[in-house]
Amino acid sequence: MNPAETLVLIVEDEPAIAELVRFSLRDDSWTFCHASTVNEAWDIIQQQQPQLVLLDWMLRNESGLRLLTRIRAESTLHDMPVILLTGRTLDEDWSVAMEHGADDYITKPFSPRELAIRARSALRRRGETQSARPLQVGPLALDPRSCTVRVGAEAVEVRQAEYRLLKFLLCHPEEVFSRAQLLDQVWHANGTLDERTVDVHVLRLRKALRDAKSLLKTVRGFGYKLTAG
């Protein structure tokens, strides 16, 4: 991606923090726009289609999750990376953010270097999704471009957090991953969350997959894998 073509939307109602975000990403020569409310941010998204959104959860008058919900409800915005920047640090806050469709979750105060690395990573994953072919194991198929999941000819509804887990496992069929590896590779939790969080998402994913739930195997003492066998 040409840095000159990368527009980053900062949704933050604290001017000092918005400026810190710009400073953190300055070496990438990206272009920035700023919004302090959900409505202002939505107008910018509709008009300019930024390549990355850095979103404060706790805006003064509205939750940033409201904007995230609107973004994920639009089929044309499914692959727009959204990173939440927030002072909320509880495990359940992270889970709520992932279920609403956040691509990453960074707590305040944040390291400028870490923010830059994770912003570049989110953009790289977006590029991979746009060029990716459908993934399939047995009757289970996922199309990254349309964000759809099918079991045979039947479409199934999978929530955002479980969709990420499924996509990762479909990219690595027959490979066993520990809970810690999944937290790191799928949700970039960096060891900050209880590994039982993974068990919750596996349980929800199996329920969503119905007849194909047997493809998601528990490997006792190690973790989980997706297999056609």
Automatic annotation (TrEMBL):
Keywords: DNA-binding, Phosphoprotein, Two-component regulatory system. Residues 132-228 bind DNA. Residues 132-228 form the OmpR/PhoB-type domain. The keyword DNA-binding applies. Signal peptide: none annotated. Transmembrane segments: none annotated. Residues 7-123 form the Response regulatory domain. It holds the Pfam family Trans_reg_C. This is Response regulator. It comes from Massilia terrae.
